[in-house]
Amino acid sequence: xxxxxxxxxxxxxxxxxxxxxxxxxxxxxxxxxxxxxxxxxxxxxxxxxxxxxxxxxxxxxxxxxxxxxxxxxxxxxxxxxxxxxxxxxxxxxxxxxxxxxxxxxxxxxxxxxxxxxxxxxxxxxxxxxxxxxxxxxxxxxxxxxxxxxxxxxxxxxxxxxxxxxxxxxxxxxxxxxxxxxxxxxxxxxxxxxxxxxxxxxxxxxxxxxxxxxxxxxxxxxxxxxxxxxxxxxxxxxxxxxxxxxxxxxxxxxxxxxxxxxxxxxxxxxxxxxxxxx
Amino acid sequence: xxxxxxxxxxxxxxxxxxxxxxxxxxxxxxxxxxxxxxxxxxxxxxxxxxxxxxxxxxxxxxxxxxxxxxxxxxxxxxxxxxxxxxxxxxxxxxxxxxxxxxxxxxxxxxxxxxxxxxxxxxxxxxxxxxxxxxxxxxxxxxxxxxxxxxxxxxxxxxxxxxxxxxxxxxxxxxxxxxxxxxxxxxxxxxxxxxxxxxxxxxxxxxxxxxxxxxxxxxxxxxxxxxxxxxxxxxxxxxxxxxxxxxxxxxxxxxxxxx
Lengths: 277, 258
Prior knowledge:
The complex is a heterodimer. By secondary structure, chain A is mainly alpha-helical. Chain A has a single domain (48-276), classed as MetI-like (MetI-like fold), CATH 1.10.3720.10. Chain A is built from 13 helices and no strands. Chain A has helices at residues 7-38, 48-55, 57-89, 93-107, 111-122, 127-134, 148-172, 176-184, 189-200, 202-218, 221-226, 234-244, 248-276. The two termini of chain A are 25 Å apart. By secondary structure, chain B is mostly helical. Chain B folds into two domains: 1-43, no CATH class; 53-256, MetI-like (MetI-like fold). Chain B is built from twelve helices and no strands. In chain B, helix 3 crosses helix 6 (127-152) and helix 9 runs antiparallel to helix 12 (229-252).
């Protein structure tokens, strides 16, 4: 490490430009947003915005629905990723790096394109309805779009890579010897998986779950396309209040509730990590 | 240890992850305009339609400029921060790290909304400037983290050696450190570019009349039309991304930074 007398000055010079940028262009607007949520245009400090939000049936339903779908999506992602991540982590490096790049690929494509596919699959004349109709299982097309199921499917597909990546990197660090030891001491596959692999990869699991959950409760594109105004989540509610109802005060309240929710989840993650070490 | 049904889980995972892409791909060549599945016939009309829709072409250029500009600026400003964090020990390093990872913790939609209220409505800022500022801010976490990782892999004594041999700090950085960080910088660039190019939440509120990014204009197209044009455009974007990511992965091993 470099030590010299004017070190503090050097550090300040290095950090200052970007720091000031973030402070002025990122922190300041958020402070303004916070003030908007407690200072309505009529003037005076008030918390009625928050009372209104939690007393209104509609926004309570939307908030609970957002959290509920976030939990379901996280659960689905955990179930789908866990065994698959284990297989990936045990693979020869060459094959694994190819398969991992296929996991990353969807992350690098925009959400509109990825959500659009679900319209083709779930639409009135989409894949599933055509199949159901041709098998005479239903008489009329079933409405899948604008349902919670559609949003859950869309979000799970969107955020699955964020669960797979940290799980694989956590499982890569489990030595083969540990697994062999468990097996030779008489544990069957399931026991080894549950009692050795799961505890040793809990770091990756918690990180992945945090990313998927916070991603799901704040995502906009998927609920906008697959839920529309009929099935609002927090993000689409924020958009509706701001753009359609022009109620900046109420929109600011929704925005602050979204920030607090994601920060709380991230704080839980930090607590978990401290306990681990 | 890896049993046969565990391989099945791999099939399910990849089917779910990549299936939608195959469906988009098939739909973009289908002749029927109503998006029925399976598509009938074969046509390239939807691709022609993409290039004839000025909304897409205009917003593509805006997205491209925006992604290049904000990535470059966030890298130039983020690099000194990463350097300070990896080469010096100071009491408020943790605070600096928190500030620069904050844009990832705050929902993108909220960032866009807050910036719209503060800069565009209150400060009368130009729409494009607002978009540029928003995108640059959300890219800092990526550029600082990736550049820091690449700096940590470089032995600080190499640089000290250059300095002890008479180079000043800046010369040492430009001639010794920078050439050794090429891979990290390129990875940060690709990651930043893609993050900005695909962003919807931040751009949504900050877009204005005539100034819209490509993903946002795709979203608003979907509000009025439901035809395979979006599928064709998505196919083009996937091909573009695959080429970009595969090139980066082959040259740099991008996945180690994600």
